[in-house]
Amino acid sequence: MGEVLDGAAVRRWCGLAAEALGRTRAEIDALNVFPVPDGDTGTNLHLTVLAAAEAVEGLPGDAGTPEVWRTIARGALLGARGNSGVILSQFLRGMAEILGGRGAPPPDGRVLGEALGYAAVLARHAVEHPVEGTILSVLDEASAGTGDEPTLSGAARAAADGARRALR
């Protein structure tokens, strides 16, 4: 990850996230055991992010960062599938509010950590009875993993490491 998180970078990230979830959705579906082992979490996450990516594709090429984030959040909400999709849409809403808000500072590691923390709280509030050991725990650990990392790329790596730890 570079040190600039502008509209073009956010747009690319959303497309790459949709592609990655498309490739791994069967694996995620097989891991799905909570709240019921219905085997659709990977598919629901993929369809939710795909809706966000498709919404962003409709923006002009020069769309600014706030507009891209708002479009991702709205696309995810409108395209959310299942509980996991709703949780993810609320997480993306939180990211959009911090990273794409009016007057938002250019994100560095600390701002990314703040956005991840706020987004994890919104995701948790989307669930009536939050349960540990679910995607909520992964989001919490990703957020906590950033610590005081000053650089954007360092915070992104630390968040990914935190998420991986939650999966062990």
From TrEMBL:
- Tell me where on the tree of life, at the top rank, the source sits: Bacteria
Do you know which Gene3D superfamilies this protein is assigned to?
1.25.40.340
Annotated ranges, domain DhaL: 8-168
Question: What are the protein's GO molecular function terms?
Answer: glycerone kinase activity
Q: Name one GO biological process term.
A: glycerol metabolic process
Against InterPro entries, the record matches this protein to: DegV_domain_contain, DhaL_dom, DhaL_dom_sf
The cross-references to PROSITE patterns, in alphabetical order and at most eight, read: DHAL
User: PANTHER family, from UniProt?
Assistant: DEGV DOMAIN-CONTAINING PROTEIN DR_1986-RELATED, PHOSPHATASE PROTEIN
What name does the UniProt record give this protein?
DAK2 domain-containing protein
